[in-house]
Amino acid sequence: xxxxxxxxxxxxxxxxxxxxxxxxxxxxxxxxxxxxxxxxxxxxxxxxxxxxxxxxxxxxxxxxxxxxxxxxxxxxxxxxxxxxxxxxxxxxxxxxxxxxxxxxxxxxxxxxxxxxxxxxxxxxxxxxxxxxxxxxxxxxxxxxxxxxxx
Length: 150
Fold this sequence. Notes:
Winged helix DNA-binding protein, MarR/SlyA-like, 3-stranded antiparallel β-sheet
C-alpha cells in the first residue's frame, strides 16, 4: 500500500471512529448516562449474564475500567451482581428491569439515529458499506487480535 493510501485510510478510520463516538455520546447524553455505560448495557442485553472479565475482554478495556463502569451501573440500579452458581468465588453480572429498559431505549435511539443518517442511501449502497466495514474490521482484527487491550 502506498504512503498516500495508508494516510487516507488512517484518516478515514479516524473520522469514522470520531463520528461513532460523537453519535454514541449524544445518545448517551440524551439518556442521561455515560457513553461507556451504554456499551456495558448493550453487551449484557446481547450476551445475557456474564462475568466482569468477559465485559473487559469484549470492550477491550482493563478490568479496573470495566469494574468502575459496572459499579456505576450497579449503583444506578441497571445491573446486579450475583454469585456465580458454577464458581462461588465469581460474580455474574446481569441487567435489572431498569437495565433492560435502558437497553431498549438505547436501541431505539441508535436505530432512529441510523435511520436518519442513512435515509438517503439505497439498499445496495448500505449492503456494500456493511460488507466493506466488516472487511475493514476483520483486517484490523486479524493483525491486532493478539495485542493486549489498552
